[in-house]
Please model this.
Amino acid sequence: MPTISSDYKLVLTAHKPAGTQIKINREESLGGPTFVTMAGPCTVEDEKQMDEVARAVKRGGASVLRGGAFKPRSSPYSFQGLGKPGLQMLRAAADRYDLRVVTEIVSENQIDLIERYADILQVGARNMQNYELLKALGRATKPVLLKRGIAATIDEWLSAAEYILAGGNEQVILCERGIRTFATHSRFTLDLAAIPIVKKLSHLPVVVDPSHAAGNNNLVIPLALAAVMAGADGLLVEVHDNPSTAYCDAEQALTPMQFLELSSRMRDIACGTGRVIY
Amino acid sequence: MPTISSDYKLVLTAHKPAGTQIKINREESLGGPTFVTMAGPCTVEDEKQMDEVARAVKRGGASVLRGGAFKPRSSPYSFQGLGKPGLQMLRAAADRYDLRVVTEIVSENQIDLIERYADILQVGARNMQNYELLKALGRATKPVLLKRGIAATIDEWLSAAEYILAGGNEQVILCERGIRTFATHSRFTLDLAAIPIVKKLSHLPVVVDPSHAAGNNNLVIPLALAAVMAGADGLLVEVHDNPSTAYCDAEQALTPMQFLELSSRMRDIACGTGRVIY
Amino acid sequence: MPTISSDYKLVLTAHKPAGTQIKINREESLGGPTFVTMAGPCTVEDEKQMDEVARAVKRGGASVLRGGAFKPRSSPYSFQGLGKPGLQMLRAAADRYDLRVVTEIVSENQIDLIERYADILQVGARNMQNYELLKALGRATKPVLLKRGIAATIDEWLSAAEYILAGGNEQVILCERGIRTFATHSRFTLDLAAIPIVKKLSHLPVVVDPSHAAGNNNLVIPLALAAVMAGADGLLVEVHDNPSTAYCDAEQALTPMQFLELSSRMRDIACGTGRVIY
Amino acid sequence: MPTISSDYKLVLTAHKPAGTQIKINREESLGGPTFVTMAGPCTVEDEKQMDEVARAVKRGGASVLRGGAFKPRSSPYSFQGLGKPGLQMLRAAADRYDLRVVTEIVSENQIDLIERYADILQVGARNMQNYELLKALGRATKPVLLKRGIAATIDEWLSAAEYILAGGNEQVILCERGIRTFATHSRFTLDLAAIPIVKKLSHLPVVVDPSHAAGNNNLVIPLALAAVMAGADGLLVEVHDNPSTAYCDAEQALTPMQFLELSSRMRDIACGTGRVIY
Model:
């Protein structure tokens, strides 16, 4: 177990022994008795896509719609997202199906814009140590979902969260999404031991993104179910109405049918988690 | 997904599409409809310890008793195991509770000795590429449990199994036990994506050792449950009647009470696995 | 060898077969016949420190003074740098000894400020995939030193550089500073194979930071000499006049005496490199 | 720096402050004032090959001929070596050019056989924790070259050496050959910081194998030169008279011409190492 570092204090369990709950809607809070599923495409592509995905994920029990409008891409020549029109499509689709919205923020200068359309602001793994962004999010009014960097220790991850709390925003959700290892059969190696460790050290809720860890939709369901049993408070899953045409991460997106299978299998094991799973 | 390598062929699904089942007892086969639990201490210490642990793991639904009599230890000054008297104690305790025996083999010269006392011969992670040992095990008459090396790719792991099959012994069980990564909050990082991948590529059954991956008994139950949901055919878990006095790996052993909690929680999710879990 | 990816093209050797040279002063260009040494403290602390370090590194043959005024720190409670007054001290000390200045930029909003004081803008490992920063640097007029992320592949590193070139700034220096591995005896593992590989793939100059890789000043000289022989075009080394009082990274800074020893040993092997080493 | 572990004591500097020197021939000892080069093919193939390689490496200043007769191969279907006839060819070629012989041992049952033909017994990375082999080597009369496992910490490596010393054989040479990391542009990542660390902790000589680390002959010379400057006592390099026809590791073998280039470049930097390099 990592020793408790003086690098952080506000994120520690001792600071808030009752645990942080982040209100999602009337029935659900992340970190509460209900398991929260967030699902949607990697990238917002068009209205029809968003409508179909939103309907599908709602039907599968999700309460939050994900989708990227500003995409951090390894290459400058890859599709960088639709920007503001993408945010509008995402919001409209979510509202139509009574879903909340989580979307990625990539610059300290985007806070006002993103807050206008999203309920949760996502920081991607590449920006986990973009401290100017974290400081700006400390002044945001919406919850922040902070992905773990692909080579971040738990100390570094909690220290990054501490930046946001120290800035005044106590609504932080941690997201394990796989670490980079020598193993190449999956895109990343999902580090599920991080869940019980972080939940012991910290009062913050922890969700898992099995899609980026897997890199292949054959692996998403087993990893998602494993994450549920390892103690995650929620999931962030990529779902696309037609993965073969997806603008990015086509291989790891679940089809609506596969997502329904996942949610059905999650309900089968709800009894073993002590939680409500829709 | 790894491309299928010409380094192996007998281990491939195409070679035995129905899958390999390894008979454990009248009701259970590894790779069959029943989930198989193997449990016991890291090291055989004395008769009383073995009796207490055997009774406890039997009560928790285990069908195989584990325990080491020949221990590969990082230091020459660490306890190296009781040797043959340890094998005798292990066998006697297992027989008393109608359990099968799995124990580690560390030399190509020990096959006759170990086969006399054990039902399954375990190859540890350090010896996964000790090819002289693998060749000798190809001529053994008992099943072999082959742990994945801490830095082995799936190709290397299946190639190691191929040595045993190519030698004439088709009774091989693969065991994922964690890989070495930069992460230090657990002893190793359990690579659960390896389970669906190996089960797709190969007809061999796959079990998971959450104890060595965890290195800490607080993490064993979440990782074990995660492994069940990721599709493992069985578990190999360390249980000690009094972990604080254990000769080795004291921190990662479950107490009998914790093992009962684990088995109870496994039964709660059996419905979600399509398997019988005792 | 990595296959050439379509993620980048402007950084490729084929785009500029003669190689990129980045003018440092009248005699020296990074990527040219002279080996370039950049040295200085982790953090700018005060005028006296900067004067002593600048004098020492000049005497040891350095032509660029390094020093941080904006520090990305893992914890919000660690010293974050002196900011603008730090930049002023750094510039003044450098000018006094006819040195150029390299310093870190941590926000897309700082370009004007940093360009006013520095000759080279450094992007730290944590920000290698902060694409908004990279895009802004594509519009900068000064050269950029781009450190490799601690878990970045060579493809990802070159793609990050491509963002800057695609934005219009062709003056990019790549800096290898160690990757995160399971090895804990050094802070990171210096990946020297990256040097010949990147120099073959790309026309950009490559320097090495042995200080962050080492994490311990006993290791800095051997790693620095190794980097010279692996083909680096220059070094970025931490030097502090009194490491025991340094605000950060105290353990890895060389003393002025150790820096003189390093530069003397580098000159001894200059004959083996085909370069001039001052 | 790793703390000194009670897992080992005989390997520690304090046990033999003057350092261990392993006599190679009249002029050279590993760990002494002369840098020792060991070179030769991955595998002994035939008499003509061995003669040509032996002549070439002698001309390039090598004093030890390497070549495998028993090859640990990932797949049972790969060429496993010529066995005893290979040892005979290796010995004959070495004797013709007054070279010593290093070759791999893969089983505790081979000690007598290998000792008859070799001057140094090599333990490969895969067998670094094959403790039965290490114990048997503790009773051998010839020096042992112990490669570091691809995921071994320095503590584990020194503990493995301790097995040999504790068994009575104090003639151990450590060999760094690269560790497995996420980086795929080289076969392994050469960990050169291990050299100064091990040389500080232990009295044993340390050599470097740049060929297995590189996996590609373009990288071998830069890595070899880097290893010299990082403080290695010697090198173990793959050389083949016609790499394109090599039975194994064809891509990483140097041609005789490349080996001459390497030895010439090593002599150019001898002045910077304080050693004689032939």
About this structure: The CA atoms of residues 38 and 64 of chain B lie 4 Å apart. Chain B has a mean pLDDT of 95. The interface with chain D takes residues 5-8, 72-78, 106-109, 126-127, 129-133, 135, 149-151, 155-156, 159-160, 162-163, 166-167, 180 of chain B (CB under 8 Å).
